[in-house]
Amino acid sequence: MYAKRTHNHSLDRTIMPDHLQISAILEDATRRLATVSDSARLDAELLLARAIDMPRSYLFAHPDEALDELAAARFDAALERRLAGEPMAYITGVREFWSLELMVTPATLVPRPETELLVDLALREIPRHADSDVLDLGTGSGAIALAIAKERPLSRVTATDISAEALEVARQNARQLEIPNIEFIAGDWTQPVRERTFNVIVSNPPYVCSGDDALDALHCEPRSALTAGEDGLDAIRILARDCGALLKPGGVLLIEHGAEQRDGVAATLQEHGWSDIACHTD
Ligand code: GLN
Predict the structure, then answer these.
(1) Is 80 helix (H, G, I), strand (E, B) or coil?
(2) Which candidate, 157, 227, 171, 165, places its Cα nearest to that of 199?
């Protein structure tokens, strides 16, 4: 028997399986992400919004809509990275700091909200209506330096980092944010600015102890930006030794450090002749 098969157009329409619906995808991803993230639902939403190239609000307005295969594949790839412990900032490529949207890559530490306290303290030392020279040592993505430069347009901010790759990210951030009063110089701590002096020096140096268990969760970030010897104070010792010569009279040095390092940092600074040492807790 011969039967001619006629083309049935209804078969051309792809029937979306339920598991590709936005609401189901979010539920499933949230459940899985809960093992690695304390913001699992938010992470899932941000990754999904990115995979479909829509604002997050779109997800709430269209819970029953199904993803096309390409978007689903994009989402799966991002989800796998997050499940492997990669920070959201590296997956999305951006992180907000001091209301500035910064580009970040694995060449830089992900800026932390706690570090906004360092910016806040630095701004109290930098006049709004007069010029001043500010130095940020180990700038990474440029977060601290850019926030200060933005808030104090009359200041001249210099930012150093030993990593050329990190500085490239910082430079791009300055360009993107159109912040002109900032310059970047590659080099080891104060080495590239030895001939100059500053009113304010800031730094968020590496300060985690090399054997700290917390490092496991930070395995995607550059180790050199996180650890500084057994007691975590190696970088701070360098700053305490070298920054005094770079300060103008009445200048201040502001350093971020770990919660348990208060006494160690104070002792290190005293050894190098620093006075009026104060500790602020975030
Ligand atoms: N605050 C970071 C952390 O413990 C460390 C940042 C640093 O070493 N500067 O996750």
Answers:
(1) helix
(2) 157
